[in-house]
Amino acid sequence: MDVEETALLLYVRRRREFKRKKKQWWVHPYLADRCKKGQFVNIYADLRRYPDKFFNYVRMSVRSFDELLTLCENDLLKQDTILRKSISPEEKLFVTLRYLASGCTMRELHYSFRLGQTTLSTIIKEVCAVIWDNLQTCLSLPATANDWMKIADGFEKHANFPHCIGSIDGKHIRLIQPADSGSMYYNYKHFFSLVLMAACDANYNFIYIDVGAYGKSSDSAIFQETELYKKLISNTLNIPEPLQISENNPTLFPYVFIGDEAFGLSTNIMRPYGGNNLSAEKKIFNYRLSRARRYIECTFGILTNK
């Protein structure tokens, strides 16, 4: 028998021994003490008494946490069995927010919360899906012309840019390269990402989001695939009719979304003038548009800070 056959037989024998090996514990003794020594049991109640510490730990106020828990509790609740008690919705949400707030590893959470790594992974995916299902309906485009007018009034008041009904842009969300994805998620900034396309008002509130586009795609191409763009082209957004922007100028100007040079110019989409050799009037216009467009950059900044 040659060396290769011997090595193959040893490999097969070890695989059989590995498969026959039984688990030493049904629940590891370290994890079995979760209800007495886990981090949730030990610090959750104390953190709630100190709102600043609670916010620092999960990047969310106690009030916001309770509101989010109320929305998601029924979907996260599981039935207790004879063998074990289920993990409470409160603990599931708490550990998920800690994971999202800190970026710590599953192994670190495993030791601090005394939950299995596979269990943690399942919980985080479940909670994120439940949050999305329950909160996506809270974010909706204005339904009436009056609602759009209120947004336009905000931009005119704070940015001195009339007839602006939203600032739009894309944000690259860094991620680990998905398996077998090639260069689809590799962006021009030289890292892998998903794109969050969003629009906001003058109060730093998102009024529309679209997330999930490949990092390699341009903002203009992504925007043209969104529901917002399709409704804009089909004229089903109830955008107000064009009006004059001042009493001294009788010209009727449409209400527009504003973006950077990556977006195409159309009736309801405004972008700055391109090039360097611009007249004084065009430079002033670009400056004024930039003042209004920065609101989406600041909104992304607030989100990133969280």
UniProtKB/TrEMBL annotation:
Q: Which InterPro entries does the entry mention?
A: HARBI1-like, HARBI1_dom
| Superkingdom of origin organism | Eukaryota
As recorded in UniProt, coiled-coil segments are: none
Which metal ions or organic cofactors does this protein require, according to UniProt? Answer: a divalent metal cation
Provide the DDE Tnp4 domain boundaries.
168-305
User: What are the UniProt keywords, alphabetically?
Assistant: Hydrolase, Metal-binding, Nuclease, Nucleus
Where does the UniProt annotation locate this protein? Answer: Nucleus
Gene Ontology CC terms, in alphabetical order:
nucleus
Write down a Pfam family by its short name: DDE_Tnp_4
Q: Which GO terms describe its molecular function?
A: hydrolase activity; metal ion binding; nuclease activity
**What is the similarity comment for this entry?**
Belongs to the HARBI1 family.
| Protein name (Swiss-Prot/TrEMBL) | Protein ALP1-like
